């Protein structure tokens, strides 16, 4: 399951009124709203709140707009696949938009642009500053930004954050990154495990041995990131990487990329940074990793570490064909791990409902008889291969 995220904006509203109105919704346990876990920020234009993880957040804009005496805009990300909004005032829907129309069936969400003139009046911005966000994505979304200076591209559900910024509600103020934990140089060594803990650890390792091995990639292999960073000839960047100061390192790498945009190393190291920063704030870093790995692969098409990293970034089903291509290329480049890639390819084929091709991949792996993992067995059973 991908990300479901709900942000409510109250332009011109009073924070205490808006908090009280949302608090009344929290009284219903079916809504799964926990006020102490919602994140509020008071902007010059009014308050905003991001609902807690797990909240059922799509149904409140209409009733909230009846009691807060201001417009209410619900901006949301649906399953990491697309973003949209609903705009309400006094119980009346003024506008709605979804970046990926017809997601569920024809006309749901409707295939129409948002009303830039209306939204601009409500939020006191120029229509030209938001209009490009309010056009449904094309089927083949080019990886380009709606406006110069945007952080996210067309086709990326986090484009919602750029839209909110343009309205005057900077998302990072609502959900700032968590501060890095303080280092504890004199922290005592952990106690040695007892005999039963040793047996438990050994047993868990035995069970994991049957799982699919996790191959190192440009996103996870620190020695690889250090090696590529050394090639940049920048002692400051190497020091930041060595100290784990990933926010500052990402900024330094952005400067390096501006200086030498045709050098793949900064993109590879920055992709590693994004992976290390994943989970530091509510914002997903998957799109950042994907963009940097894609650019690195444009410059180094046969980079096995980058290909491994990109195949691990499952975002939406629209990316499955690219992942099939990457896995096929890895089977050619990295013959030692061919079976692992082929089982992964079989899964993607199955998810794309091409079970015939998926069975063919599994049968080839079984005929070679060199790999036996839980993932392989599960998919063989699901696809009803003989003897499973």
Secondary-structure topology with pairs:
Elements: E1 5-9, H1 15-26, E2 39-43, E3 46-50, H2 61-67, E4 72-78, E5 82-89, E6 92-98, H3 116-123, H4 127-130, H5 159-167, H6 171-174, H7 195-208, H8 222-230, H9 235-243, H10 246-259, H11 264-277, H12 286-299, H13 304-311, H14 320-333, H15 338-351, H16 355-368, H17 374-382
Antiparallel strand pairs: 1-3, 1-4, 2-3, 4-5, 5-6
Oligomer: single chain
Total individual domains = 3
The count of β-strands is: 6
**Terminal residue distance:** 27 Å
Strand order of the largest sheet: 2-3-1-4-5-6
% residues in beta strands: 5-15%
* Low-pLDDT segments, ≥5 res: 192-209
Shape: globular
Mean pLDDT comes to 86
Order of helices and strands: EHEEHEEEHHHHHHHHHHHHHHH
Share in helix: 40-55%
What is the gyration radius calculated from CA atoms? 24 Å
Reported for the largest beta sheet, the result is: 6 strands, antiparallel
Number of helices: 17
User: Structural class per helix/strand content?
Assistant: alpha+beta
């Amino acid at each position: 399951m991908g990300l479901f995220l709900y942000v409510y904006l109250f332009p011109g509203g009073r924070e205490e009124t808006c908090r009280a109105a949302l608090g009344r919704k929290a009284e219903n346990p079916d809504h799964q709203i926990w006020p102490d876990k919602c994140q509020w920020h008071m902007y010059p234009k009014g308050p905003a709140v991001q609902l807690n993880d797990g909240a059922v957040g799509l149904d409140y804009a209409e009733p909230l707009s009846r009691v807060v005496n201001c417009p209410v805009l619900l901006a949301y990300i649906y399953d990491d696949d697309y973003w949209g909004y609903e705009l309400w005032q006094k119980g009346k829907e003024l506008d709605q938009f979804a970046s990926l129309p017809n997601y569920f069936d024809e006309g749901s969400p409707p295939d129409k642009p948002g009303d830039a003139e209306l939204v601009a009046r409500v939020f006191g911005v120029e229509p030209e500053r938001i209009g490009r966000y309010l056009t449904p994505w094309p089927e083949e979304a080019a990886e380009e930004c709606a406006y110069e200076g945007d952080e996210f591209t067309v086709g990326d559900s986090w484009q919602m954050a750029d839209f909110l910024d343009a309205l005057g509600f900077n998302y990072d103020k609502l959900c700032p990154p968590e501060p890095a934990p303080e280092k504890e140089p004199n922290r005592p060594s952990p106690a040695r495990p007892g005999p039963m803990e040793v047996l438990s650890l050994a047993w868990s390792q035995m069970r994991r041995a049957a799982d699919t091995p996790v191959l190192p990639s440009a996103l996870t292999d620190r020695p690889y990131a250090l090696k590529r960073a050394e090639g940049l000839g920048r002692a400051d960047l190497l020091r930041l990487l060595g100290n784990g100061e990933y926010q500052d390192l990402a900024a330094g790498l952005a400067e390096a990329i501006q200086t030498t945009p045709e050098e793949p190393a900064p993109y590879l190291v920055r992709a590693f940074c994004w992976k290390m920063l994943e989970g530091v704030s509510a914002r997903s870093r998957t799109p950042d990793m994907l963009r940097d790995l894609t650019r690195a692969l444009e410059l180094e098409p046969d980079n096995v570490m980058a290909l491994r990293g990109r195949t691990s970034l499952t975002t939406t089903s629209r990316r499955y064909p690219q992942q099939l291509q990457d896995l096929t290329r890895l089977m050619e480049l990295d013959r030692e791990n061919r079976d692992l890639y082929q089982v992964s390819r079989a899964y993607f084929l199955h998810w794309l409902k091409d079970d015939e091709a998926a069975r063919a991949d599994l049968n080839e792996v079984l005929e070679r008889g060199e790999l036996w993992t839980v993932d392989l067995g599960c998919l063989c059973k699901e696809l009803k291969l003989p003897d499973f």
